[in-house]
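Entry type: protein chain
Record version: 2
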Amino acid sequence: MKRTKAFLRNGRIKTPDSAFTGDEPVWDSKTTDLELYLTKAFGFYNYYLEKSDFLYALHEYMVSDTRYGAQKAEFLTKNYPANEVYNHAGGLARMATQGAPVQDRLRNLIDRLLRQVRVPVVAKNTGPSPIDIARARIPQRSREKVQSLITDLEALIDSWTVKTTGKIREFDIIEALNEINVEKEYHRPLQEWIKKYHDEYWQAYDKSDPDLVEGFSYLGKAALKHRIKALQTMFQSVEGWKKPVKARKPRKKRVKTADKQIKSLKFAPENDEFKLNSINPVTIPGSQHLYVFNTRYKTLNVYHAEGPDGFGVKGCTLQNFDSKTSYVITLRKPKEILPQVAGKTPKQIEKIVSKLTTKKKTATGRINGHCILHRVVASRKSL
């Protein structure tokens, strides 16, 4: 199943409103109240994810679970029971992938869903309809690309609904068509979508449909006219589009999801001497700052990501950290310094470290069984 746009390439969820919602709730050794965690997690997922995103999360979990596999995952997500709430199964699947102890209840739910799903039976004498034949002629890949573009346009309509006055958000349909690079003959679903919304706005504008007049009563005549004109221009652009001749882009290297990246990572879950517990390592990929304490040598390993994509993990080695700003420093009084590292901002931590008399050493990125994953900061804050 294709990754939805709610997820980054490294498997993390996009959080444009993180200042208000916080980052994705993570299950770790410090979490004790499962029901409270579930409440927070479901609230977070319901805010950011839609049906396709929940089904993608469910698909990813089922593929990784040997009890189900790719075939059952594909079958269930394509035939999900209409009477069942998709965000419950998808939310639990995402939590399980992130390490939460919900696998038993999730498996019970998936088993129940699979029992409900049945393969549709087609009558022997019933042939495909003309519409089905026309759709079958469209290659699957082209259909998916056009549908993805329509999903982006749905977001455009949503923005027009929120902003009722002033200039409306524009959409470069030519650039989008060039990007998906699908043959013109397969654009019919896109044209039908544009015409559908154009006709709705027009019937509200000329007052030919009382229901639509009432439905769009929050928009003035000028606002309706702007939207009608924008859709007309968009329709003409689709009709006049010609497939550009361009060189094929090099294929992007596929980034492993966070749970797969940290699969072989070795670290110390806890340490009695310093009374420390490691955070869940699944939060490391994609994050911007990482603080690791080596209990054997009493060193604090400070890592800062070199770019906006954040860290990566390969085996037991941290990748994509800035070698110029990252470092290792010995702590003579770790029990005094570490609590401050856990509660301060990256900038404040740098001020605390600058007052230490021990010298900084070069960071290697290696993490082993003596290392406590002390803290991770997801946002890219200035130092």
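Comment: The chain has 15 helices and nine strands.
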